[in-house]
Amino acid sequence: MEEIVALIGGNGAGKSTLLNLVSGIVRPSRGKIYFRGEDISSLPPEKIVELGIGQVPEGRLLFGPLTVKENLELGAFKRRGQKEKKGVAEDFEYIFRLFPILRKRLEQKAGTLSGGEQQMLAMGRGLMGKPILMLLDEPSLGLAPLLVQEIFSVIEGLKNERTTILLVEQNARAALKISDRAYVLQTGKIRLQGEASELLENEEVKKAYLGQDS
Q1: What pLDDT is attached to residue 12?
Q2: What is the b/e burial string over 109-121, where b = at least 16 CB atoms within 10 angstroms of the residue's CB?
């Protein structure tokens, strides 16, 4: 079942590290990581991508000198061959429906885009790999409130596209509002967990992450 799962917690809680463990960028020192019943703990990142896990990293990490089109094409680098050509073209149109501004910026270098446009491109690049599980790391970082609302609306809609989202986000309120379940991390350990709607009303979560007067 597709859902949005939020990871919230303070700086240094281990949220981004957890995403990097799942995507194979960081190796676990102990324990195992399973995806759809398969142990992926020792797989290299490119193999994990092939299994259907995509990551949009904190800070976007776009290829600045390359165009919007080229960045999107790199997102589909595992979908090579004539058989995939039509599907890739269809997914370009899908990305443009999600983020219409990217069609207008297609030949523009990624490094010249605004912060909001770069976040849209980073998400579009991740979606070009057709992930079953999308790891989103701080998608609202540095964005104006209206853009945050737009980005979170898209994230919420992705669940209807048969994509499960694992969302790391400092904006705990926004994350909990669109999520189905949530975990609160504290120094690498799960402090609280449950339905996102319940954690949104939890007094401990309110005090620590949502503000005293929430």
Answers
A1: 87
A2: bbeebeebbbbbb
